[in-house]
Design brief:
Length: about 800
């Protein structure tokens, strides 16, 4: 029995509820090697698949000879597009409304595209057989540069779309054009620009990069032909959606498909989409009647699964001479590769890029995005940035620095001057969003005071003078960024995936002894959901977090949900969790009233149970109520204590933050040192401060990688030149700077517990902060913008161009 005579603080501490730095319960398993990842799944008679991939980025496939591979002992089957056509699966739909080849059908469109799928008794035989498949290619002209994609004589990439002038998102202007998406008032914006006292215009390219999770993509498909049941284990960030898609594609009834996401070794957006490996494994298992496992290697992961970014953003700001921004205009050229497999809600071909007006009160704006095909891998995932938010924030935060320079103003001051003010919330933005809450100035001032911003600027001036005198070879850069994120997709009225609204869910079942299990439609990939959802429930229900199990990722048991990405778990499933708990609490209150023989309204909640108003010694603890739910419920009430909630959020949540970076750059080597990095995040109500800090550390480290060198690069011939960890920058503890974290708390007014997402924020906010620091180091020399990534070689090249080094 929990004893309600114990002091309040003690009872509260015992719950380990919201706000508690509860240690991650999942880490007991992870740190002891007891995780259960897809590759740990070993089934009787399981066989292994491996891909034949194209060495050419653009070529016609003249013929495929599989006979030598099939003759190799241990090889069971070799699938090609021709085989898949017999089951109508040579092509599959993408999340963006396009179609994508599962296996090369007549031609290939990017290097390492899947051409054939070999299935063998073991992984090694499969790899040997891959080498024995003979493919005859005829090379075609390659299109690498997106700026050339819509030239009249550009090579035709998608012959399957020949003559189609309409795509999934409206008219197509050219054979390599996918869509044009516009938002905002172009006339009013043009007017603002024609009247402006000052304007700036710059092309900001946000290069192609890749989430590169520790665990690559993988699956095991197991078809039980007797029962007609398909079980699919895989690295899925959205298991229910995979089940629905698998049912629609395979025509196996949805209740006969079970999708399980076991432990996932990092997702970061990479594991949202559907890949050919999943489809081929399913077909293989259906054909052979044996479980088929497919696990990518690192090169395959980096070169063929979904990339992120690749946005080229020509951005303009209009302002008064005093620095009040009056208009924003942006044109984006979006390089989607060979197929549009962008992972955004269906109606948003450029994600939430229209958050580009950022944290500023900009009266008028216009955005146009053109998506084009090139001979590169398909994708376009969030990579810790919820649907193109990081691109938008990058453009805005660089542009405001460029404007500050032109106005001869301090970039932090210019931001303060243009912030949306607290009393303007809920704030309708010029591009159609309604920001829920924010207090930007408080956050910005706290950041500036903590780092002694004025002192840093004085130090920078001194250092520049010392550089002039030849006393140092270093330049100091101060990067400022202030971002507003938009997470929690989302209201089902305008957010869906393949037609399914983006609600999320929680189902709670409480046992007689007061222990509980709760299941959600989301799936942790390392975020710590097992720890944090239990904390929400602990506070809401007065049951210790240690007594609550959290289960996700099995479609046979979890309620339908849209999965984890876009920092949506807290805003959507976190809300569902609180709502389901409140249904339970309402029933618990009726049971308590019955137990104490009072009217429900005479009870008040106190941490872990109810007290009779005015008679505080008369109590019913939650533990007692749970027992009573199974033997002493009021007449006409059903026994048991269970609830489910499907939560459709009324709006997104808008976390924000102020970041400051201090960097020293050696002009002779181009090498940089991040001397200080301060990140203040406001994600509303904080569930677990320690997990938040970990999330911020992780996101900053990824942001650092992207800004300072991480890139998926192609040469002029379309070869991907960064497909292994020899060339792809993943920072280790050696390169990673020291992170200082801080916070303010501005709750979301529409979220039941006031929480906003946080997982993505640090990536969104830090990339422009690093890039602003680099650019700031050279700003006094007339530099307006240096393109990312800022690796040593590129910085050194800039120093050379500026005559700073020999
Ligand atoms: N206010 C608040 C918020 C939040 N939280 C926490 O934190 C985390 C997070 O959350 P969010 O923000 O809501 O998010 P989510 O949904 O859960 O998740 C997602 C994210 O998450 C991040 N993080 C991470 N981590 C890890 N470890 N891993 C991973 O993978 C990852 N990923 C990444 C990404 S990329 Mo995308 O997919 O691109 O779209 S998106 C993303 C969790 O645990 C929660 O609970 C708290 O505490 N509080
Ligand atoms: Cu994005």
């Amino acid at each position: 029995m929990n004893d309600m005579t114990v002091p309040r603080e003690e009872r509260e501490a015992k719950l380990e509820g919201m706000g508690c730095k509860r240690k991650r319960v999942e880490d007991v398993r992870f740190t002891q090697g007891k995780g259960n990842y897809v590759d740990d799944i070993k089934l009787k008679d399981m066989v292994f698949g491996d891909f034949v991939r194209s060495p050419y980025p653009h070529a016609r496939v003249k013929s495929i000879d599989t006979s030598a591979a099939e003759a190799l002992p241990g090889v069971l089957a070799v699938l090609t597009a021709e085989t898949l056509k017999t089951v109508n699966l040579a092509w599959m739909p993408t999340l963006a409304g396009d179609v994508q080849m599962v296996l090369a059908d007549g031609k290939v469109l990017f290097q390492n595209q899947e051409v054939a799928f070999v299935i063998a008794e073991d992984r090694y035989i499969a790899a040997d057989a891959v080498d024995l498949v003979e493919v005859e290619y005829e090379e075609l002209p390659v299109l690498v540069d997106p700026f050339k994609a819509m030239e009249p004589d550009a090579p035709v990439l998608r012959e399957d779309l020949e003559g189609k002038t309409e795509g999934a998102h409206g008219a197509r202007k050219h054979h390599n054009h996918i869509f044009e998406w516009t938002v905002g008032d172009s006339e009013a914006t043009d007017l603002a620009f024609s009247k402006a006292e000052v304007t700036v215009k710059e092309l900001f390219s946000y290069h192609r990069c890749h989430p590169c999770p520790l665990e690559t993509c993988a699956c095991v498909a197991s078809m039980d032909k007797i029962k007609g049941e398909l079980t699919l284990w895989g690295t899925f960030q959205a298991p229910h959606v995979v089940r629905t898609v698998a049912s629609l594609l395979s025509t196996i009834p949805e209740h006969k498909i079970r999708v399980i996401s076991p432990d996932i070794g990092g997702g970061f957006g990479n594991k949202v989409g559907v890949y050919p490996g999943y489809v081929c494994s399913i077909v293989g298992s259906i054909v052979l009647g044996r479980p088929v496992k497919w696990v990518e290697d690192r090169i395959e992961n980096l070169s063929a699964t979904a990339f992120a970014r690749d946005y080229h953003m020509t951005t303009e700001l209009a302002a008064t001479a005093e620095g009040k921004i009056t208009g924003l205009r942006c044109h984006v050229l979006a390089d989607h590769g060979g197929f549009d497999a962008c992972a955004d809600p269906s109606k948003w071909p450029a994600g939430f890029f229209n958050i580009i007006t950022g944290s500023y009160d900009i009266p008028t704006a216009h955005v146009a995005v053109d998506g084009v095909y090139t001979n590169k891998a398909p994708g376009g995932v969030a990579y810790r940035c919820s649907f193109r938010v990081t691109e938008a924030v990058y453009a805005m935060e660089r542009a405001i620095d460029v404007l500050a320079r032109k106005l001869n103003m301090d970039p932090a001051e210019l931001r303060l001057k243009n912030f949306i003010r607290p009393e303007q919330f809920p704030y309708p933005s010029a591009l159609g969003w309604e920001y829920d809450s924010g207090d930007y100035e408080t956050a910005m001032r706290k950041a500036m005071e903590t780092v002694d911003y004025a002192g840093l600027r004085a130090e920078q001036a001194e250092k520049r003078a010392a550089f002039e005198r030849g006393e140092t070879r270093e330049l100091m850069g101060i990067g400022v960024s202030f971002f507003t994120e938009i997470v929690g997709a989302g209201p089902t009225r305008n957010c869906d995936i393949l037609g399914i609204g983006m609600f999320d869910s929680c189902e709670i079942r409480i046992h007689p002894t007061g222990a509980a299990i709760a299941r959600m439609g989301t799936i942790s990939q390392g975020q710590g959901h097992q720890t944090t959802y239990a904390q929400i429930l602990a506070t809401e229900l007065g049951i210790p977090a240690d007594m609550i199990d959290i289960e996700e990722g099995d479609t046979d048991t979890a309620p339908y949900g849209l999965g984890t990405y876009g920092s949506r778990s807290t805003p959507v499933a976190g809300a569902a969790t609180a709502m389901a708990a409140r249904k339970i609490k309402a029933k618990a209150q009726m049971i308590a009233a019955h137990m104490l023989e009072v009217h429900e309204d005479d009870l008040e909640w106190d941490v872990d149970g109810f007290r009779v108003k005015g008679l505080p010694e008369k109590t019913a603890s939650m533990k007692e109520i749970c027992w009573a739910a199974y033997n002493n419920v009021p007449p006409n009430m059903e026994p048991g204590l269970e609830a489910v909630s499907y939560y459709d959020p009324p709006n997104m949540t808008y976390p924000f933050g102020a970041y400051i970076c201090v960097m020293d750059i050696d002009v002779d080597t181009g090498a940089h040192k991040v001397r200080r990095f301060y990140a203040l995040d406001d994600c509303g109500t904080r569930i677990n401060p320690m997990i938040i800090e970990g999330q911020v550390h992780g996101g900053l480290t990824e942001g650092y990688a992207i800004a300072m060198g991480q890139e998926i690069a192609y040469d002029d011939m379309g070869n991907v030149t960064t497909a292994s960890l020899m060339d792809f920058f993943l920072p280790t503890a050696v390169e990673t700077p020291f992170w200082e974290t801080d916070w303010t708390v501005t709750p979301s007014p529409h979220h039941p517990i006031g929480a906003k997402g946080v997982g993505e924020s640090p990536n969104v906010g830090s990339v422009p902060c690093f890039s602003n620091a680099v650019n700031d180091a050279f700003a006094h020399l007339g530099v307006t913008h240096i393109q990312m990534p800022h690796d040593n070689w590129r910085i050194w090249r800039e120093c050379k161009r500026l005559g700073l080094t020999g």
